[in-house]
Structure prediction request, 224 residues.
Amino acid sequence: MNSDPLRFELVIFDCDGVLVDSEPLSTAVLAASLTAAGLPTSSEDALRDYKGKLLQEVTDQAGGLLGAPLPEDFLENYERDRERAFRASLRAVPGAREAVEAVKAAGVAVCVASQGKRSKTELTLSLTGLHDLFGADALFSADDVKRGKPYPDLFQHAAAAMGATPDSCAVVEDTVIGVTAAVAASMRVVAYAGDEDPAPLRAAGADTVRSLTEVPAALGLGLT
Prediction:
């Protein structure tokens, strides 16, 4: 796609793994929770098998592997333990504030579209000092739509709510599921690969960067 900065009206940021470094904490808590429920799981297993998925998808998949439904209070306990971990040590992804500020400085609107609940996004952005970067009506959750990622619904909903057309939007993601959703929504995608293998993200249809500070330039905004 043409990356002329004038074509972009909106940049949609994923939250977990893009703005906040929540994945290591979430996967560690998930692994411990699944192991306690009778399904031995390492952090590496949890990251590989469940990253980017809706919590209901996680519990359905884990229950299938276990051969029985997870305990009724599994999600409640998991979310409680995850919040404790977040409050203890959650940090912003390096370069997150700089990237969002640079996009805004280029005259492009920003919002967040996450698989997680809005309350979780509010919490993690507040804990990491990033909440002030986004307007009160610029946080969107998969709970807002019928289907979460990898379907395009969430990104399409966010664009419509922000008054932008899909072809004027770019998405910043970090998972194949998210990239797939953005491509299905007919949006340009830049994927933050960090220390991970960028090949799957590229194969899904994204341009990739190793640092969030590279995002504005990757979108042709002329700022780093």
Notes: The first strand starts at residue 10 and ends at 13. The domain at 5-21+91-218 is CATH 3.40.50.1000 (Rossmann fold). The chain has two domains: 5-21+91-218, 23-89.
